[in-house]
Structure formats: C-alpha cells, structure tokens
Amino acid sequence: MTTVTAPAASATRHHRNQEPPLNAAPADQIRLLDLQALDVRLTQLAHKRKSLPEHAEIQTLEGDLAQHRDLLVAAQTEESDTAREQTKAEQDVDQVRQRAARDQQRLDSGAGLSPKDLENLQHEIASLAKRQGDLEDVVLEIMERREAAQERVRELTGRVASVQAKIDDATARRDAAIAGIDAEVATVTKEREVVAASVPADLLKLYDKLRTQQGGVGAARLYQRRCEGCQLELNITELNEVRSAAADAVVRCENCRRILVRTPESGL
C-alpha cells in the first residue's frame, strides 16, 4: 500500500509510481465512491442495452425471414415460368385443334379431292387428334405443376408474414426496453455530472485516468482491511502505511493501483 503524500515513502515510491503527491479532503474522497457507483451503473446499463435478448431474437428471425423470402422468390419464379409454359402449351393445342377443324371441313365437303387425297386427309386428321391429345396431357401436367407452385407461394407468403410479425413484435419490445434503459442512462448521467462537479479537478482527473486503465473502476473502498477493487487484503506493512497517512492524503492500493478510499468501516 502506498500513500502519495507520506514524506518517508515519497522518494522511493514517488520515483516508482511516477506520480506527484495528491491531497483531497476526506469528504471529497468519499464522494469518489458515489461517482464510482454511478459509473458502474452506467457500465451495467450499457451492457444491458447491448445484451438485450431481443437483439439475438431479431437476428435469428431476420435470418429465417431472409430464407423464407428466398424460397418465396423461387416459388414465384416457378409459378411465373409454369404460367408461361402453360400459355405456350395451350396455344399449341389450339393450333392443332384449328388445323384439325379445317381438315375436317375439307373432308366433309369432299370438293375437288381425289380418293387418295381423302385418304391422306383422314390420316392427317387422325394424327392431329393424337397430337392434340398428347398436347392436352402436357397442358394438364403443366397445370398441376403450376397449382403446386401457387400453393407453395401461398404457403411461403404466410410464413413470411408470420415471421415478419414476430420481428415487429420483438422490435417493439426491444425498442421499449432500450427507451427505458436510455431514460435511466440520462438520469444517471445527470447525477454523475452533479457529483463530478463537486470533486476537485485533480482528483477527478486521476480517478478518470485510473478508471480507464482499470476496467472501469478507478476508486475502491477499503473495507475491513480489504481493497474492494482487487479484493485483496492489505498486509500489516500496507495497513501501517495507510494508518500513518494524513486524513487528506490520497492513498493507492499497492496491488491494483486504484484510489483507496478510507471509511469508518476500513478496519484501521
């Protein structure tokens, strides 16, 4: 444990710590604990905001939504392709039907046709009938595929809407939680500004520096001979140094280097 004001330790320890002695009224030092508590709360709120379960929920749902949308686009493309395919097949059927109708009219009239022509015409009409039947089977097969694609589109459209609704709900819950957290952050920040303004500038500067270096904790209470920053108990030599330090001396934990704030519960 080091005191930054004790003359007996100043030469060796000041050289080692490379920091000038610092004094502050005991009340100002205790006020650092209030400031530290507010900073810890701000850190907790930042972590809470970042770690809201809705963040992961939304991320998972958005992945599902992207997958469903890709499948929907594929199904819509298939439905569109089969629609064009059906139109083309129906046109082929209609062309064969019209040609068969013309041949039948010629056959029925018989005008200017030789027996050989009549035989050929009858053969062509029979071939066209078979061709029409084959094409109509193709149309039916395409219609079945199109109906399946349409059903798939309807199903996936419903899934997309369902997942989107879940995302909207999770987003609303997330935004409400964030609004609550941000409101508390604003309140705590204002409280911190008031407390920080009451701390001497040099003490505040040291505290902020240490807080940055020591994972968010710049000042710790000495409680029952234990530093609450690193949770290590002071040995007898360190305790004697703290006991001998002036009340306004800003002392530091020998182990974690945080500002060590003395209180009636310090066990000195």
From TrEMBL:
UniProt entry tagged with the keyword Transcription: no
> What spans are recorded as compositionally biased (Basic and acidic residues)?
81-106
Coiled-coil intervals, chain numbering? 118-173
Query: Which residues lie within the region annotated Disordered?
Result: 1-25, 77-116
Q: For this UniProt entry, which residues form the secretion signal?
A: none
Q: Which residues form the C4-type zinc ribbon domain?
A: 226-260
Q: Which Pfam families match?
A: CT398_CC, Zn_ribbon_9
Q: Which InterPro entries match?
A: CT398_CC_hairpin, Oxidative_Scav/Glycosyltrans, Zf-RING_7
Keyword list, A-Z: Coiled coil
Q: Where are the bilayer-spanning segments?
A: none
Residue intervals of the CT398-like coiled coil hairpin domain:
35-215
Q: What is this protein called?
A: C4-type zinc ribbon domain-containing protein
Species, as recorded: Streptomyces mashuensis
